[in-house]
Each structure stands twice: as C-alpha cells, then as structure tokens.
C-alpha cells in the first residue's frame, strides 16, 4: 500500500478518534472521518488482545492487501479499521467478505463511493 494511502502519524489517528462516524459488524469496527486530501487514508488499530506480534502482523498484512485491492472508489476520508479478537482465526476470503460488508454499509449511509 502506498504511503499516501496510510494514516501514519499519531495525530492523524487522534483526529479520526476525536469525532468519527462509527460503523460495526460482528468482526470489525470502522471509524470514518472526512479529510481534505483527494485520496483515502487507511489506518489499522490492532490491540494485544488479538494475539502476539506474529498474529497481529499477519492480520495487518492481510487487511492491507484487502484495502489495496479494493480502495479505488473511496475518496476524501480517513478510515481506521479495528478488528475484533476472533478475526485472527479467519482465512483471507472471510476477512475480505466481512470487511467489505462493513465498509459498504458505512458508505451506503454516507452516500460516498464504496468498495466494489
């Protein structure tokens, strides 16, 4: 994933956490806030309850790949994706389906372009 598509600084994460629109399903919490950039930016917040570092990094790599392949229709938002504890056991297809579902739900309500 390109650097321009990532939330990297702590202040960026704090800005999203301050006044987000939150959307949920049983596997993810997605926090969304509009930004002034012309592209979307994604951040992942994976807590230690998910597992040890190896498990968290594997989950983060999978989520980044899902976002990289499917972000093309989203504009002008910062998105923080927070997976729930049990998502570490999911295979790639199930992660992708669940994440697309919650993001699609969020953008249908927001009337912005959403993931394919």
Output the keywords.
single chain, 116 residues, alpha+beta, 4-stranded mixed β-sheet, 4 strands, 40% helix, globular
The number of helical elements comes to 3
Q: Uncertain regions: pLDDT < 50 for 5+ in a row?
A: none
Strand order of the largest sheet: 1-2-4-3
Shape: globular
Helix coverage percent of residues?
25-40%
Structural class: alpha+beta
Rounded average pLDDT: 89
Q: Tally of extended strands? A: 4
Distance linking N and C termini: 18 Å
- Gyration radius, in Å: 13 Å
Run of helices and strands: HEEEHEH
Major pleated sheet? 4 strands, mixed
Report strand %: 15-25%
Topology:
Blueprint: H1 10-18, E1 21-24, E2 28-34, E3 41-44, H2 53-70, E4 77-83, H3 92-110
Parallel strand pairs: 3-4
Antiparallel strand pairs: 1-2, 2-4
Describe what you observe in this structure.
It is a single chain. This protein is an alpha+beta fold and 116 residues long. The chain is 40% helix and 19% strand. It is built from three helices and four strands. The protein has helices at residues 10-18, 53-70, 92-110, and strands spanning 21-24, 28-34, 41-44, 77-83. A four-stranded mixed beta sheet has the order 1-2-4-3, with helices on both faces. Helix 2 links the parallel strand 3 (41-44) and strand 4 (77-83). It is globular, with a radius of gyration of 13 Å. The mean pLDDT is 89.
């Amino acid at each position: 994933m390109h650097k321009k598509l990532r939330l990297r600084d702590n202040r960026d994460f704090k800005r999203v956490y301050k006044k987000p629109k939150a959307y949920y399903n049983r596997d993810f919490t997605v926090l969304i806030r509009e930004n002034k950039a012309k592209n979307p930016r994604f951040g992942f917040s994976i807590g230690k309850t998910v597992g040890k570092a190896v498990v968290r990094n594997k989950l983060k790599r999978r989520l980044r790949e899902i976002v990289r392949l499917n972000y093309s229709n989203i504009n002008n938002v910062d998105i923080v994706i927070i997976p729930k504890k049990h998502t570490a056991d999911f295979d790639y297809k199930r992660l992708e389906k669940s994440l697309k579902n919650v993001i699609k739900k969020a953008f249908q309500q927001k009337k912005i372009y959403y993931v394919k």
